[in-house]
Amino acid sequence: MLPVNSLLRCKSVCKSWYTLITKPSFATAHLNCNTALKRNHRILLKCFLQGSKRSVLSFLSDEISGDDHVPPTEITIPHSNEFLQMLGPCNGLVCLTDHDDIILCNPSIKDFRVLPPPSFNYPQGLFSSTLGVGFGFDPHSSEYKVIRIAELYEDDESGGYKFHSVNVEIYNLSTNSWREIDVVVPCVWFFPCSELLFNEHFHWWANDEDYGGESLLSFHISNEVFQQIRLPNVCAFPDGNERAFLVLNESIALLLFNPSEQTYFDIWLMTEYGIAESWTKQFTTGPLVQVERPVLFWKHALLMEKANGQLVSYDLRSQRLKEFQLYGAQKSLRAVAYSESLVSMKRERDIK
């Protein structure tokens, strides 16, 4: 029943307490308790500090109407730049990636693992580039998985490159290894808030002309099956708008917006998961001055990043904007709804 910080201190009491609290079974019981009681829900923020050239993780309490000061919780991250994405969370774990390096991290206990790079034998002359990364948990096998969608290409005579194919690779935490799966998927787009874990599926924004245009490409974490969900007919890439996929009212929300001096957001909900015809426009909000992009729906507010890298929240009921004293490099801010856990990525022999 104790919070993580208290349990970490309890590890120092005696050997028997240390042994108990570091057991995977104890971490699972603690996680199940938090889930059942819906406790310890906070906002986990990531931003890149331009001056010190490092990423900082910060926690914001569940009452965002309180103090606007957000104290940083510094966590040593082996690789940090302003393009670092934060995927998840899943049982207290998040995936940090700039699409070159991939890191799994539990910020509650400051535990992390740098994933080994895929080492597949591609045909001679072909090179690999990451298009999208996903992360999730398979409850049937108790396995954490990272999904990498990669583009295979070859250099051409003009000094550019020629597209060859799209490859799908999966990392299993239990074996610390990668494997390929034989499947045909479209190219996906990498930009902030385009990748989303929801309903035991991971999602990417895809533009597949053979399928009929823009879609959400979903991957079922357990069955390892892909499917495409068509976006509303108002989406016609390129249309000058940016897209963001968030969770609102336990549904996937699509936000269409064009960052400018006064930004408006058209907000659509997929009211029935997986059913393209269920996309319904809920409302339009704005204008909001110098807002760069949305990052998270939290209760009755929309958290956003301003053009100067500052965190702000917009109350959807009162239509009031609140500024927080947290700044980062432009377009570096990420936020997820987070619940702490004791889940560790160390294997049994590492713990012993």
From TrEMBL:
Any Pfam family hit: FBA_1
Residue ranges of every copy of the F-box domain listed in the record: 2-26
Biological classification of the source: Eukaryota, Viridiplantae, Streptophyta, Embryophyta, Tracheophyta
Protein name: Uncharacterized protein
NCBIfam families: F_box_assoc_1
Organism: Escallonia rubra
Domain named F-box associated beta-propeller type: residues: 87-342
InterPro entries attached to this UniProt entry: F-box-assoc_dom_typ1, F-box-assoc_interact_dom, F-box-like_dom_sf, F-box_dom, SCF_F-box_component
SUPFAM superfamilies: F-box domain
Superkingdom of the organism of origin: Eukaryota
